[in-house]
Amino acid sequence: MNFGFVDGPALALPLGALGLIFGSFVTALSYRLPRGESIVHGRSHCPACGHMLTAPDLVPVLSWVVQKGACRHCRAKISGRYPAIEGLTMALFVAAGFLAKDLAHLILLLAMTPPMVALAVIDLEHQKLPNTLLLVLAVLAVAWRWHGDQALWVGFVAALLMGIVGLGLDAGYRAVAGKSGLGMGDTKLFALTGLALPVGAFLLFLALAATLGLAFGVIRRWLTGSSRFPFAPTILTAYWIVLAGADFFDQKLVMLSRG
Ligand SMILES: [Zn+2]
């Protein structure tokens, strides 16, 4: 993004810091939400020794590195999920600053990123997609379309079509593999991408989702031996790239067409 007075590089530092703060929120949210724990109440504590965590324990990424991935009080190992989620959110916030085409899209993309990361993490860890997060994402997607081509009806028709495609994929996968493919959560997620996706980007989105899905599936199988296809993280990654890069892809296409 370039406002003339402030552009991508100048935004990298403040957005990186903001990304770490939101990343820290996402680690807590993605841990508590699927366990039915309150998101706003109750302070973080070490799951091993129960020690209340204070400021020095809670600096994103840095605390984990300085304390060598262990609790300061009982030395119990702290999962790498914390720095990984915080680092990922930070990287996405910085990338958003470079890619978003205007301030409204930047703000919407920054608002969509934490629920998207949380959904991907919760799906990987618990194989579910909480409706609360899907609803937040759907509302932001409608706002995104409203700020873009304003064709809300196109968004709703696209959402309906994506939902039908999702149900079709699930039925097809069931018929071929004999087990459930896209769950209802995945289908809802698939449908809500239609709310925001630019009409010209649908094929790009589907191609990207298919390619990333295969890559994720192979890597996941290699790392964890799990044969479960990571639908939601795949859909979310393709969705984020297409939304963030819409303007960037447009410019590249224009440059190519001008030879
Ligand atoms: Zn501890």
Order of helices and strands: HHHHHHHHH
Sheet with most strands: none
Distance between the first and last residues' Cα: 24 Å
Shape: globular
Strand residue percentage: under 5%
Characterise the protein shown here.
This protein is an all-alpha fold and 259 residues long. It folds into 2 domains: 1-99, no CATH class; 105-259, no CATH class. 69% of the residues lie in helices and 0% in strands. It contains 9 helices and no strands. The protein has helices at 8-32, 62-66, 81-99, 103-126, 131-147, 152-177, 184-196, 202-224, 231-257. Helix 1 packs parallel to helix 4 (103-126) and helix 5 (131-147) packs parallel to helix 7 (184-196). The longest helix has 27 residues, at 231-257. Zinc ion is lined by residues 46, 48-49, 51, 71, 73-74, 76.
List the helices and strands and how they pair.
Elements: H1 8-32, H2 62-66, H3 81-99, H4 103-126, H5 131-147, H6 152-177, H7 184-196, H8 202-224, H9 231-257
Bound molecules: zinc ion (ZN).
Descriptive labels:
single chain; 259 residues; mainly alpha; 2 domains; 9 helices; globular
Summarize the model shown:
The protein is mostly helical. The chain is 69% helix and 0% strand. It has 2 domains: 1-99, no CATH class; 105-259, no CATH class.
